[in-house]
Amino acid sequence: MQEIPYTFNPEWLLNSFPEGIIALNSDQKILFVNPSAESLLGISKKDFVGKRCSHLIEVEGAEQKCLLERTLQTEEPLTQIESKCQNKQGEKLVLRSSTFMLKDEHDKSVGAVIQFRVISSERPAGETAPKNLLFDKVVGKNPRMLEIYNLIPGLARTKSTVLIEGESGTGKESIAHALHSNSPRREKPYVRVNCGALAEGILESELFGHVKGAYTGAISNKQGRFELAHEGTIFLDEIGDVSLSTQVKLLRVLQEEEFERVGDTKPIKVDVRVIAATNKDLKKAMDNGQFRQDLYYRLRVVPITLPPLRERRDDIPLLINHFMKVFNQEMEKNVEQVSPQTMSTLINYEYPGNIRELENIIEHALVLCNGNIILPEHLPRDIQIRKSDHVDRAISREHPLEAMERELIIQVLNQCNWNFKETSEKLRISRTTLWRKMKDYHIVK
Hints:
Elements: H1 10-16, E1 20-25, E2 30-33, H2 35-41, H3 67-74, E3 78-86, E4 92-103, E5 109-122, H4 143-156, E6 162-165, H5 172-181, E7 190-194, H6 200-208, E8 209-210, E9 222-223, H7 225-228, E10 233-237, H8 244-256, E11 258-260, E12 267-269, E13 273-278, H9 282-287, H10 293-299, E14 302-305, H11 316-331, E15 337-338, H12 340-348, H13 354-368, E16 373-374, H14 390-398, H15 400-415, H16 420-427, H17 431-440
Parallel strand pairs: 6-13, 6-14, 7-10, 10-13, 15-16
Antiparallel strand pairs: 1-2, 1-5, 3-4, 4-5, 8-9, 11-12
């Protein structure tokens, strides 16, 4: 996937927003519903696009209930309106919404857009929230990630060994945990071992256990992680750091489902599902004689390769929203939004530490944020921040989507050294449209 500055697509942007977005035309028929709106309201856009709004989002006690219809009739935007509705699952939702008019190039009103988020929800009495184990810690809608998510339910039902490959911080353990949580072994142990954090002798004892007197300091018998994971799942993180001698013993467990404790000759049978992960190139390690070929293929029955965050930028807004919810709860805060300028900075950052780094950035931002909007100054200093001007702030308050578009246009202009022809081609718009947007957004070099 190419980066935003080179392939700006308005629909992609709308689909990436964590807030729900619904657009109507001037006939009060629904033009567009983004995935977040589908998820929040429990609807499918195919059931609504082309149909009338018909009180999709209602304001309790208001004479004119549909906010979008109200905006179309008055041609006046609404800002931060609290409204109530019930989704298809019967949840009573309290929403905070803003609306604005859609206008054509002649400044004629052609429709209206609502942007909303859920600020509270309540399930009907006697009902409990459905437990979605699969996506408890896994977030994203990127096509490459969706392929992985779609693989997990079927793969989880098997005992097949899985090798998860990807850079540090890409969420390998979240995938491993999802596989266990959706498996028939979910009620049994899930044991994680960081193979790279333990010295060779200690790792062998940690994995397989030892008997009393096996070595100096072994004052009693000790169960290893494989025994503790019996009938469950063992997750071997950083498998590429395991020594060749320990690799031999791992291979035996995978082939024969048995091992001996250190210092013992009695075999112990074990029923364990093995999931391994690495941030190293195991093929290269294999070619260099540092990783056994037979173990590699035993582990790699089903390979899963996680893309780095810089290759799934369309997931960044969703991940930001997820981490905001997590840290709001932990810190007892109510930070609800990310300013368009901040969002643009976060989307275009390279993330050498991947999802883990983004999580740390959002935690840092919430610590510093005393309001309800994350601003550029709340981000860590080592992240390059674009400073806002008075035009940014004015647009941000009134039309957050336009603010995002303005920021992205500026970035592409800078990438193209303000060459209008090249910029319009990369934005996939005409030069006339580019000039009009620059005029509308007060963009000057």
